Amino acid sequence: MDKERFLEEVARQLRHIFGAVREGHKPPEVLKHRCEGFMRAGVFLGVVSNAELAKCMEAIHLNVMGITIAERKAMKMSQFRDEEIDYSQYESPAYKRILV
Q1: pLDDT 10s digit of each residue in the chain, 100 long?
Q2: Domain extent for 40
Q3: CB-side exposure of 33: number of CA atoms within 13 Å?
Q4: How many domains does the chain have?
Q5: Alpha-carbon span 100 to 98, nearest angstrom
């Protein structure tokens, strides 16, 4: 298999996965695992390198999602609220906390 054909198939699989994410759907795990296995096989067979695959994945992600992978990770991390949960109501014994 030649490198161009291999990268075209990787790009097709990644577009499918990233497209589902963009639409708000969680892609099936089997698709993600199949794509990852396909990419690892390409590296194992010497068709492509990990660096080439990372570059391809970054380009497809930017094309489909409109932002880089790093920007998306940062955006997801900023969405988490770091709120402190007040557990003070549980400091007294349970038999004293009977709800009325």
Answers
A1: 799 999 999 999 999 999 999 998 999 999 999 999 999 999 999 999 999 999 999 999 999 999 988 888 888 777 666 567 777 777 888 777 776 5
A2: 3-78
A3: 3
A4: 1
A5: 6
